[in-house]
Model the fold of this input.
Amino acid sequence: MTIAEQTVATEVAREDIPELMHRLGADAKAAAETLSTSPTEAKNAALRAAAGRLRANRTALMDANAQDMAAGEQKGLTKAMLDRLALNEDRIEAMARGLEDIAALSDPVGEIMAEWDRPNGLRIARVRVPLGVIGVIYESRPNVTADAGALCLKSGNATILRGGSESFHSSRAIHACLVEGLRDAGLPEAAIQLVPTRDRAAVGKMLTMTDLIDVIVPRGGKSLIERITAESKIPLFKHLEGICHTYVDRVADPEMARKVVLNAKMRRTGICGATETLLIHPEVVASHLPPIVEDLTAAGCEVRGDERARAADSRILSASEEDWGTEYLDAIISVAVVEGVDAAVDHIHRYGSQHTEAIITEDTEAAERFLNRVGSAIVMVNASTQFADGGEFGMGAEIGISTGKLHARGPVGVEQLTTFKYQVRGAGQCRP
Amino acid sequence: MTIAEQTVATEVAREDIPELMHRLGADAKAAAETLSTSPTEAKNAALRAAAGRLRANRTALMDANAQDMAAGEQKGLTKAMLDRLALNEDRIEAMARGLEDIAALSDPVGEIMAEWDRPNGLRIARVRVPLGVIGVIYESRPNVTADAGALCLKSGNATILRGGSESFHSSRAIHACLVEGLRDAGLPEAAIQLVPTRDRAAVGKMLTMTDLIDVIVPRGGKSLIERITAESKIPLFKHLEGICHTYVDRVADPEMARKVVLNAKMRRTGICGATETLLIHPEVVASHLPPIVEDLTAAGCEVRGDERARAADSRILSASEEDWGTEYLDAIISVAVVEGVDAAVDHIHRYGSQHTEAIITEDTEAAERFLNRVGSAIVMVNASTQFADGGEFGMGAEIGISTGKLHARGPVGVEQLTTFKYQVRGAGQCRP
Done:
């Protein structure tokens, strides 16, 4: 048994986990009831106070993080993983500002979404209310503790956070600041709870607590999402894959196509809105593709294509069937020649992940056909797929991007963390 | 082997069911893609044509129904079940008119829910789109075949209908009329499919087809819903129970309380919006409760209550703990004395099913507190809980009432059978 394993084993005994998780859930549910009618100002005060606590405790946060970093190095985490895990003054300041930004968002709770009168005099209002209790299961980035807790709080939900085991001490230290913020604002401390054990049994139990948790938001790689999907009895707001496409149409402006494709692929290759496949009309392959390939290869991108694409540019490697359904999250792009808008849409529906797709065209009719036919959460004309982001959409912070169709779709900000109820006001009406 | 069982066995061989259901699903998905951009007029034309076919084929429908009725009698169905199963000229006419009513509803698809510009010039629109493929699993009422198929079609969704085995022939005959309507209007016939076998294995397969079906709507009794909930890998819009409460507050008008409670309980006892528990403030138990009990008992309702309720009226029988969590769907009501609005809300949150609750009060502050604190889908002031209905809300027909919190909540009409996507229009923007 390594030291790390011993620590896990001594945190909470395995047999005590179901009861512990049930208690967390029950406390969250009670807190959610209070939060559902808590004034906006109290929620904002808690967020601002927590931001202050993060700043005041930055040395302690970095000490906690140093423990995680040392354990991570010992465990042989990759450099990229260690970078995601690391906290420094700048990142702590960014987290604190993130909380203040969420405090500055308008409160979705209580918003009257629609209101109408019935002929019998009943007045019906559809009013936004919190979802209740949201479970968030994430991997190594410790800042998710602050972001997710804050977004749920702002939308009036209680949260149960389950961070990655690598960031255990960092998340605990951040969570302590959030709890102090809640206490300062007179809100229940159980409004934001952190699962106090790294034992995976806690996640297993969490995913069965249908009476106590309303939604689970899993944040992480595909394997985490797939595991949680298979196991969860609770609905998920999840993001499985971003196999995004950019289609360069017959009447695309060549300069725009060149600039947008380069940005869509290479601005950041590791985000879900990065284009993974370029589709292109046969009539512009010869003219438009080589300059695009020029830019991509100059930027260090590997280009793989079908026969017709390769015929137009010898730098293109051969793509296999598997490429069309692959989310590279890397400096690789696949290129397929398609016979027009409809063929582009068919390719997208066959291989895509319903995330974000774009068409580059000067033809309004083609643009509208693409916008209407593509079934993805986000469909763009003449813009980079990298705009698929809650901040870029003007929604403020997001807890993630949902590739599901139900309830939350696309960027999930505070509004999508709510549901609604009907308030009906009468004067003694009876139904005939 | 009875004749009925032989019929089942010879319809489709058990081993062919997975492939059959997969084909239904794939056909539905293809049809859904067409429907998502089908013009409103085509959908309405299909509905009106189907209504005409129902009327023209009423003799054939009644013949098919006679087969089901005979089998049902042989099988020993109760009188109530046989009544739900029966078709006659009036019921066929009502079904046809139902289709025409749905044709007359406005089309939710394509509605721009919100639209805004970003500082970088991107224009973002949130547009209503169909969900895709909806599976509907129901019990004996054959009219659900027409209603559910029509609501899904109007909202641009393809449907896979799985009717109760008792109404097998009736549903097939109704379905044939819907398909003729689709054909007349030039829409894909697979837009509304009926599972062509009574074998329960078809349902089992259906509930695993996550790639082909977007939502399952189970309609039926609690045991059906529980079975489907346990088994389904696909999200459900479901209605589990309606344990509805009416709370008579300290400053309730006694005449209004009397009239509304009687209606809320006794107008129809078998619907989900019927009040099952009466809560009452201690200060008005002596004055308000006896006249209410008077009316209820005169209407044939059994009244069960706690000690304090029974002290006020000797006609009240003793309620057990179990009564508070029971959906009677019958002429029985339970009565509990609670200390005020907050105690009423606590009782509702402890025993209720998040369906519909009402307060009877002249005190605006108490009313607002009740409206805000109660977490149910529908919260009413001074009105009968029996108004919990899509038609009464002005939404037109409903496929059911959802007691879940996600996506669909309360009455589920055409609008709630849709989702949305973002359409983003740019001029070559790249993300910095």
Q: What stands out?
A: Chain A touches chain B through 61 residues (CB under 8 Å). Residues 1-10 of chain A have pLDDT under 50 and may be disordered.
